[in-house]
Please model this.
Amino acid sequence: MRKPRAIDRLAKEFEKIPGIGPRQAERIVYFFIKQGPDFIDGFASAASDVKNLVRCSECRSVSETSPCAVCSDTSRDSSKLLVVANTADAEAIERTGKYDGYYFAMGALLSPLDGINPADLPLNELKALVEKKRFAEVIIATDPNVKGDATALLIADALDGVCGAVTRLAYGLPFGGDVEYADEITLSGAIDGRRNINKRSNQGKVADGVKQ
Ligand SMILES: [Zn+2]
Model:
Protein backbone atom coordinates (compact mmCIF):
# COMPACT_ATOMS: atom_id res chain seq x y z
CA MET A 1 0.00 0.00 0.00
CA ARG A 2 1.31 3.44 -0.95
CA LYS A 3 1.47 6.17 1.68
CA PRO A 4 -0.55 9.26 0.65
CA ARG A 5 1.69 12.20 -0.33
CA ALA A 6 -0.17 14.53 2.07
CA ILE A 7 1.25 12.54 4.99
CA ASP A 8 4.84 13.03 3.84
CA ARG A 9 4.20 16.68 3.13
CA LEU A 10 2.94 17.47 6.64
CA ALA A 11 5.56 15.22 8.27
CA LYS A 12 8.29 17.22 6.49
CA GLU A 13 6.88 20.42 8.07
CA PHE A 14 6.93 18.91 11.58
CA GLU A 15 10.51 17.73 11.03
CA LYS A 16 11.57 21.39 10.84
CA ILE A 17 10.67 21.80 14.54
CA PRO A 18 13.79 21.48 16.75
CA GLY A 19 13.87 18.08 18.48
CA ILE A 20 11.38 16.38 16.13
CA GLY A 21 12.81 13.51 14.05
CA PRO A 22 11.26 11.83 10.94
CA ARG A 23 9.55 9.01 12.87
CA GLN A 24 8.10 11.37 15.47
CA ALA A 25 6.93 13.72 12.71
CA GLU A 26 5.04 10.90 11.01
CA ARG A 27 3.51 9.83 14.32
CA ILE A 28 2.21 13.38 14.84
CA VAL A 29 0.63 13.32 11.37
CA TYR A 30 -1.19 10.05 12.16
CA PHE A 31 -2.32 11.60 15.45
CA PHE A 32 -3.82 14.50 13.49
CA ILE A 33 -5.64 12.12 11.14
CA LYS A 34 -7.02 10.19 14.09
CA GLN A 35 -8.29 13.39 15.79
CA GLY A 36 -10.30 14.34 12.72
CA PRO A 37 -11.21 17.50 10.76
CA ASP A 38 -12.27 19.73 13.72
CA PHE A 39 -8.94 19.26 15.48
CA ILE A 40 -7.00 19.90 12.27
CA ASP A 41 -9.01 23.06 11.50
CA GLY A 42 -8.48 24.30 15.07
CA PHE A 43 -4.74 23.66 14.83
CA ALA A 44 -4.45 25.42 11.47
CA SER A 45 -6.36 28.46 12.71
CA ALA A 46 -4.30 28.65 15.95
CA ALA A 47 -1.08 28.48 13.90
CA SER A 48 -2.40 31.22 11.64
CA ASP A 49 -3.11 33.50 14.65
CA VAL A 50 0.53 33.17 15.76
CA LYS A 51 1.54 34.37 12.29
CA ASN A 52 -0.02 37.78 13.03
CA LEU A 53 2.04 38.43 16.17
CA VAL A 54 4.73 41.11 16.00
CA ARG A 55 7.91 41.97 17.88
CA CYS A 56 7.47 44.99 20.19
CA SER A 57 9.64 47.84 18.89
CA GLU A 58 10.80 48.67 22.43
CA CYS A 59 11.14 45.49 24.52
CA ARG A 60 11.35 43.07 21.54
CA SER A 61 8.82 40.72 23.16
CA VAL A 62 6.44 38.80 20.94
CA SER A 63 3.16 40.70 21.17
CA GLU A 64 -0.19 41.48 19.52
CA THR A 65 0.72 45.18 19.26
CA SER A 66 3.85 47.29 19.00
CA PRO A 67 4.60 48.86 21.45
CA CYS A 68 3.19 46.02 23.57
CA ALA A 69 0.73 46.42 26.49
CA VAL A 70 3.57 46.51 29.07
CA CYS A 71 5.66 49.11 27.20
CA SER A 72 2.55 51.29 26.71
CA ASP A 73 1.62 51.10 30.43
CA THR A 74 2.77 54.41 31.93
CA SER A 75 1.82 53.35 35.50
CA ARG A 76 4.85 51.02 35.74
CA ASP A 77 8.14 51.87 37.51
CA SER A 78 10.06 53.82 34.87
CA SER A 79 13.38 53.54 36.74
CA LYS A 80 13.84 49.81 36.11
CA LEU A 81 14.43 47.64 33.05
CA LEU A 82 14.65 43.86 33.37
CA VAL A 83 16.49 41.97 30.62
CA VAL A 84 15.31 38.43 29.84
CA ALA A 85 16.23 35.84 27.21
CA ASN A 86 12.69 35.60 25.82
CA THR A 87 9.04 36.53 26.30
CA ALA A 88 8.29 33.33 28.29
CA ASP A 89 10.87 34.38 30.93
CA ALA A 90 9.31 37.86 31.18
CA GLU A 91 5.92 36.21 31.76
CA ALA A 92 7.42 34.07 34.58
CA ILE A 93 8.82 37.21 36.28
CA GLU A 94 5.50 39.02 35.76
CA ARG A 95 3.63 36.17 37.49
CA THR A 96 5.62 36.76 40.71
CA GLY A 97 3.87 40.15 41.06
CA LYS A 98 7.19 41.34 42.55
CA TYR A 99 8.35 43.47 39.65
CA ASP A 100 6.58 46.41 38.03
CA GLY A 101 9.26 47.94 35.83
CA TYR A 102 9.77 47.41 32.10
CA TYR A 103 11.29 44.48 30.15
CA PHE A 104 13.67 43.82 27.28
CA ALA A 105 13.88 40.41 25.55
CA MET A 106 17.27 39.46 24.06
CA GLY A 107 15.71 36.80 21.81
CA ALA A 108 18.78 34.56 22.26
CA LEU A 109 21.72 34.01 24.60
CA LEU A 110 25.40 34.20 23.66
CA SER A 111 26.48 30.79 22.36
CA PRO A 112 29.35 30.86 19.82
CA LEU A 113 29.18 27.05 19.45
CA ASP A 114 25.62 27.41 18.13
CA GLY A 115 26.66 30.31 15.90
CA ILE A 116 25.23 33.01 18.20
CA ASN A 117 27.95 35.66 18.58
CA PRO A 118 27.84 39.09 20.27
CA ALA A 119 27.00 40.71 16.90
CA ASP A 120 23.85 38.55 16.71
CA LEU A 121 22.47 39.94 19.98
CA PRO A 122 20.45 43.20 20.15
CA LEU A 123 23.01 44.97 22.38
CA ASN A 124 22.83 48.24 20.44
CA GLU A 125 19.02 48.26 20.65
CA LEU A 126 19.23 47.62 24.40
CA LYS A 127 21.76 50.42 24.90
CA ALA A 128 19.66 52.82 22.81
CA LEU A 129 16.54 51.99 24.86
CA VAL A 130 18.36 52.49 28.19
CA GLU A 131 19.71 55.84 26.98
CA LYS A 132 16.34 56.95 25.62
CA LYS A 133 14.29 55.96 28.69
CA ARG A 134 17.05 56.81 31.22
CA PHE A 135 16.56 53.70 33.37
CA ALA A 136 18.40 53.99 36.71
CA GLU A 137 18.77 50.22 37.07
CA VAL A 138 19.01 47.43 34.52
CA ILE A 139 18.33 44.00 36.05
CA ILE A 140 19.68 41.05 34.06
CA ALA A 141 17.52 37.95 34.46
CA THR A 142 19.15 35.55 32.01
CA ASP A 143 19.27 31.88 33.08
CA PRO A 144 21.94 30.99 35.69
CA ASN A 145 24.05 28.85 33.34
CA VAL A 146 27.11 29.33 31.10
CA LYS A 147 25.20 31.03 28.26
CA GLY A 148 23.17 33.19 30.66
CA ASP A 149 26.28 34.29 32.58
CA ALA A 150 28.25 35.05 29.40
CA THR A 151 25.33 37.11 28.06
CA ALA A 152 25.00 38.97 31.39
CA LEU A 153 28.69 40.01 31.28
CA LEU A 154 28.30 41.15 27.68
CA ILE A 155 25.27 43.27 28.61
CA ALA A 156 27.05 44.75 31.65
CA ASP A 157 29.96 45.74 29.37
CA ALA A 158 27.64 47.26 26.76
CA LEU A 159 25.83 49.30 29.43
CA ASP A 160 28.97 50.39 31.29
CA GLY A 161 28.53 54.06 32.17
CA VAL A 162 25.08 54.23 30.52
CA CYS A 163 22.95 53.67 33.64
CA GLY A 164 23.34 53.84 37.43
CA ALA A 165 23.40 50.12 38.19
CA VAL A 166 23.46 46.85 36.28
CA THR A 167 22.30 44.04 38.56
CA ARG A 168 21.89 40.30 38.08
CA LEU A 169 19.35 37.89 39.57
CA ALA A 170 21.30 35.39 41.61
CA TYR A 171 20.00 34.48 45.02
CA GLY A 172 17.86 31.34 45.07
CA LEU A 173 18.31 30.37 41.44
CA PRO A 174 20.42 27.19 41.16
CA PHE A 175 23.26 27.23 38.59
CA GLY A 176 22.02 25.41 35.50
CA GLY A 177 18.43 26.40 36.35
CA ASP A 178 15.88 28.01 34.10
CA VAL A 179 14.07 31.32 34.78
CA GLU A 180 10.94 30.19 32.95
CA TYR A 181 10.48 27.10 35.14
CA ALA A 182 11.54 28.54 38.51
CA ASP A 183 8.71 28.68 41.05
CA GLU A 184 7.38 32.07 42.11
CA ILE A 185 8.94 32.03 45.62
CA THR A 186 12.39 31.24 44.19
CA LEU A 187 12.03 33.95 41.54
CA SER A 188 10.85 36.51 44.13
CA GLY A 189 13.95 35.70 46.23
CA ALA A 190 16.11 36.09 43.13
CA ILE A 191 14.65 39.54 42.47
CA ASP A 192 15.23 40.63 46.11
CA GLY A 193 18.79 39.23 46.15
CA ARG A 194 19.99 40.75 42.87
CA ARG A 195 23.61 41.90 42.83
CA ASN A 196 25.43 44.74 41.16
CA ILE A 197 27.69 43.50 38.35
CA ASN A 198 28.50 46.84 36.73
CA LYS A 199 32.20 47.67 37.18
CA ARG A 200 31.95 51.45 37.11
CA SER A 201 28.85 51.81 39.27
CA ASN A 202 30.42 49.58 41.96
CA GLN A 203 32.41 52.61 43.00
CA GLY A 204 29.48 54.94 42.75
CA LYS A 205 25.96 55.16 43.99
CA VAL A 206 23.70 52.15 43.40
CA ALA A 207 19.96 51.68 43.61
CA ASP A 208 18.47 51.24 47.07
CA GLY A 209 18.42 47.72 48.42
CA VAL A 210 20.91 46.29 45.93
CA LYS A 211 23.71 44.19 47.44
CA GLN A 212 27.26 44.92 46.25
ZN1 LIG B 1 7.13 45.95 24.69
Remarks:
- The pocket of zinc ion is lined by residues 56, 58-59, 61, 67-68, 70-71 (CB under 6 Å).
- Residues 202-209 have pLDDT under 50 and may be disordered.
- The two ends are 70 Å apart (CA to CA).
- DSSP finds nine helices and seven strands in the chain.
